[in-house]
Design goal:
The complex is a heterodimer.
Chain A lengths: L3 E9 L2 E6 L22 E5 L8 E5 L2 H29 L6 H13 L2 H5 L2 H4 L6 E7 L3
Parallel strand pairs in A: 3-5
Antiparallel strand pairs in A: 1-2, 1-4, 2-3, 4-5
Helix pairs in contact in A: 1-2
Chain B lengths: L1 H12 L10 H6 L4 H30 L8 H23 L1 H7 L2 H6 L2 H12 L4 H29 L11 H16 L6
Chain lengths: ~140, ~190
């Protein structure tokens, strides 16, 4: 997995806040102006090597794990939406217009994703990026 | 069978990116890396399906009965923008790490014309509710397929000996053109 660079701006216990440096790949990206590194936004990361404020560090985002979570969340939402729509449209327990019933049940069923989303899996601190090494200490 | 035809058609034959040329901005801009492209595709699929569903309900249950069809585009844009905000708040609340890494894609979805295109086309094609849902899902997955294929090719292109003048946007657009030609091969499928 690709390593990115950034400068630590604050250390808080086991975590450090850093501002990522735009990489070469950012040059042609349409999101360049919105991106964290270009808007002064900060990233929260595990501070494994004990970096201090002002240090230039290399960090890694575990995008594969994040993608698995994104798939779970969006797939669950979509499956529930489809199930609700089919149930409302074809079974129509309220006796409404089938499309209206499908829509109401689709939106209602999709709210069932909320209990799933409360799972610790999605808010786990292990998902935050990890600082792998200090490239240059602040002089 | 009809639903399957709509799904396959939106996914492959009338692919929103490679047939209608909608959503080109994120298609070109966020296809540098396979993982980011996949995340973007999933986020678009999710928002596209919900946006098309809600837009359909608003059109047929609110705009048509009150003869307000001329507000179609305005209301659909409002629906998409609001939904993206809701999804953004939801992800920020339930998964701060996910929001930190992928939240950046969400503002770009608001301006993705493919999403508005799906909502408008469902009205134009006079789809019923279920057909709208299947069409939007197929269109979203088609977008994901196109952007992931493009990202895979672009990652390989980094090792290719591309002439200096074609590097960057040039070779990307040529690749997109060839990909669109390849997808034309699906036109006889259904």
């Amino acid at each position: 997995m690709k390593l990115e660079q950034g400068v630590v701006i604050k250390v808080e216990g086991e975590f450090a806040y850093l501002i990522p440096s735009p990489s070469q790949g950012c040059e042609h990206c349409v999101l360049k102006d919105l991106c964290i590194g270009n808007t002064g936004g900060k990233l929260r990361a595990h501070n494994l090597p004990g970096a201090r404020e002002g240090d230039l560090v290399e960090f890694q985002i575990n995008i594969a794990r994040l993608n698995v979570n994104l798939i779970l969340l969006s797939a669950a939402g979509l499956v529930l939406l489809l199930a609700g729509a089919l149930f409302g449209y074809y079974v129509n327990p309220l006796g409404l217009n089938p499309s209206l019933s499908g829509g109401l049940f689709a939106l209602g069923f999709s709210l069932l994703v909320l209990p799933l989303a409360r799972s610790r899996r999605f808010s786990s601190e292990e998902l935050y990026p990890e600082i792998k090494r200090v490239v240059r200490r602040k002089s | 069978m009809e639903l399957l035809v709509i799904f396959i058609s939106a996914l492959l034959i009338n692919n929103f990116v490679l047939h209608y040329f909608l959503g080109i901005c994120p298609f070109i801009g966020v296809s540098n890396r396979l993982d980011s492209a996949f995340s973007m595709g999933l986020a678009v699929t999710f928002v596209m399906t919900i946006a098309a569903t809600v837009s359909w309900l608003i059109y047929y249950l609110l705009l048509v009965p009150y003869h307000l069809e001329f507000l179609e585009i305005v209301s659909f844009i409002l629906v998409i923008a609001s939904l993206v905000q809701v999804v953004e708040m939801f992800i920020k609340k339930v998964s701060p790490p996910l929001y930190q890494a992928l939240g950046i894609y969400l503002p770009l979805i608001t301006t993705n014309c493919a999403i508005l295109g799906v909502a408008l086309l469902t009205v134009l094609k006079k789809y019923n509710f279920i057909e709208t849902l299947v069409f939007a899902l197929g269109a979203g997955l088609g977008f994901t397929l196109a952007i992931v294929i493009m990202a895979g090719i672009r990652e390989e292109l980094e090792f290719a000996d591309v002439p200096e003048t074609l590097k960057g946007a040039g070779i990307t657009l040529i690749t997109a053109g060839i990909l669109a030609l390849a997808f034309m091969g699906f036109s006889g499928l259904v």
